């Protein structure tokens, strides 16, 4: 009887502690979002989104940073998603679970996932800029400095390396959700391995694949450390090309906070820029949720 009462008390206590912890986390997030939104809501205008910074970035808008972020996300996705998907398909459908190649790849993926993001920036500086870019300049441009300097392309490829482990793991998990019986049935009907993957496995896991890749891209959109050495610029008066440095929302917030001529004067712009970055991230995350819901709903019909 006493033991039963003690167990009930412990159960209630544990349930109460976990509930309180969850509520505290939710309250912190809500308060943080409210502070940012209240501080930046007056700047969330069309002019703010489509104009260039002016007067030492104490006035004006964030269009160059928004444009640079969009290009970064697009190029990063083009580079990371196909390679991550192909790698996940190989690990799930072709490689044997205990093969040396599969173990090596998984070890490499786990290692990439735990490397601090600043290390990616240093790697991008050393490999893409000092090695690849410098050799391209020497081979095709007579040593003229073009690609051997920080730019949008190298920053995007560096970011793609950062998001690659997330893409691989999410796609691999999505592929594993397809029952083995469906694969066996397809092969029994005479389909080849690739036909089975293309017609059965990929359609059956597309919702998980899209969700994982979108979440990986949304994570990369807010990262700053990897692009500090590979392409991020303090201020640009023109829109960048692939071989140019570029402004990006995350680094723009850092610049306004720490290096502006008048930090207090730029505070509303800081909040406004943060709101835009959060809205971009939330939009990508909600797109993943909505896409997954629609695909599952379509399957269940």
Structure, described:
The chain is mainly α. The protein has a single domain (44-299), classed as MetI-like fold (Orthogonal Bundle). It contains 10 helices and 2 strands; from the N terminus they run H-H-E-E-H-H-H-H-H-H-H-H. It has helices at 2-40, 46-50, 63-94, 100-114, 117-140, 152-176, 180-188, 193-221, 249-258, 267-299, and strands at 53-54, 59-60. A two-stranded antiparallel ribbon has the order 1-2. A hairpin with a 4-residue loop joins strand 1 and strand 2. The termini are far apart.
User: Which spans have pLDDT < 50 for at least 5 consecutive residues?
Assistant: none
Q: What is the terminal-to-terminal distance?
A: 52 Å
Order of strands, widest sheet: 1-2
DSSP strand tally: 2
Shape, per Cα inertia axes: globular
Radius of gyration: 24 Å
Helical segment count: 10
Largest sheet: 2 strands, antiparallel
* Overall pLDDT level: 84
What share of the residues lie within helices?
over 70%
Tell me the name of the CATH homologous superfamily. Answer: MetI-like
Order of helices and strands: HHEEHHHHHHHH
CATH architecture: Orthogonal Bundle
When the domains are counted, the total is 1
CATH topology: MetI-like fold
Category from helices, strands and their pairing: mainly alpha
Strand content: under 5%
The CATH class designation is Mainly Alpha
How is the secondary structure organized here?
Elements: H1 2-40, H2 46-50, E1 53-54, E2 59-60, H3 63-94, H4 100-114, H5 117-140, H6 152-176, H7 180-188, H8 193-221, H9 249-258, H10 267-299
Helix pairs in contact: 1-10, 3-6, 3-8, 4-6, 5-6, 6-8, 7-8, 8-10, 9-10
């Amino acid at each position: 009887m006493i033991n039963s009462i003690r167990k009930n008390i412990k159960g209630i206590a544990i349930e109460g502690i976990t509930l309180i912890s969850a509520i505290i986390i939710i309250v912190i997030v809500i308060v943080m979002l409210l502070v940012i939104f209240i501080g930046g809501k007056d700047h969330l205008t069309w002019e703010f989104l489509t104009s260039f910074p002016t007067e030492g970035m104490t006035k004006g808008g964030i269009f160059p940073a928004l444009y640079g972020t969009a290009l970064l996300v697009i190029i990063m996705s083009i580079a990371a998603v196909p390679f991550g998907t192909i790698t996940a398909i190989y690990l799930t459908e072709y490689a044997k679970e205990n093969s040396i190649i599969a173990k090596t790849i998984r070890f490499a993926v786990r290692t990439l996932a735990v490397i601090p993001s600043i290390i990616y920036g240093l790697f991008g500086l050393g490999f893409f800029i000092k090695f690849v870019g410098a050799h391209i300049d020497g081979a095709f441009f007579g040593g003229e400095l073009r690609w051997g300097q920080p730019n949008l392309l190298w920053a995007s490829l560096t970011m793609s390396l950062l998001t690659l482990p997330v893409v691989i793991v999410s796609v691999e998990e999505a592929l594993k959700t397809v029952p083995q019986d469906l694969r066996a049935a397809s092969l029994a009907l005479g389909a080849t391995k690739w036909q089975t993957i293309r017609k059965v496995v990929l359609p059956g896991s597309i919702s998980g694949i899209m969700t994982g890749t979108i979440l990986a891209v949304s994570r990369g959109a807010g990262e700053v450390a990897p692009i500090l050495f590979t392409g991020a610029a303090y201020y640009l008066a023109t829109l960048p090309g692939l071989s140019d440095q570029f402004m990006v929302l995350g680094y723009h917030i850092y610049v306004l906070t720490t290096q502006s001529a008048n930090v207090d004067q730029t505070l509303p712009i800081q909040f406004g820029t943060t709101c835009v970055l959060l809205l971009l991230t939330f939009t990508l995350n909600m797109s993943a949720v909505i896409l997954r819901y629609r695909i599952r709903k379509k399957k269940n019909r």
